[in-house]
Design brief:
The chain contains three helices and four strands. It is α+β, with helices and mostly antiparallel strands.
C-alpha cells in the first residue's frame, strides 16, 4: 500500500498526522545511526500476564499438564466432626494414617 504523507517540519520537530496512527497511544523516539525510530511505548507487564506466559511456556515444554480428574468434593460437617474427634487423641497423626492404610491393604 502506498500513501502520501503530509509532513510538517517545525521548530519543535517533525509533525505527522495523528489519523495515520489511530491506536498508537504513547510513543517513544529512538535515535539510531541512520534514522529515528518512533514506536509505541511497551505497556507494563502485569502479574497476570507473567503468570499466563509462564504457564504457556511450561505447558509447551511438557512440564505442565491439565489434570484429567475432577476436583475433590468438600468434606461434610459430619465427616469433619468425626475426624476432629479422632485427632483429639494422644496418638500422633502419622500413626492414625499408617493404621488406616494397613486396613486398606
Amino acid at each position: 500500500m502506498t500513501a502520501i504523507l503530509s509532513l510538517t517540519v517545525t521548530e519543535d520537530g517533525l509533525r505527522l498526522p495523528r489519523q495515520l496512527f489511530p491506536r498508537l497511544g504513547e510513543v517513544e523516539v529512538i535515535e539510531l545511526n541512520n534514522y529515528i525510530l518512533i514506536k509505541p511505548k511497551p505497556r507494563p507487564i502485569t502479574a497476570n500476564d507473567l503468570r499466563t506466559l509462564a504457564m504457556a511456556a511450561l505447558h509447551e515444554a511438557g512440564l505442565l499438564t491439565t489434570l484429567a480428574w475432577q476436583p475433590l468434593s468438600p468434606v461434610s460437617a459430619a465427616e469433619r466432626a468425626e475426624l476432629a474427634s479422632r485427632l483429639r487423641g494422644a496418638r500422633p497423626l502419622s500413626e492414625i494414617i499408617v493404621e488406616e492404610r494397613t486396613d486398606r491393604v
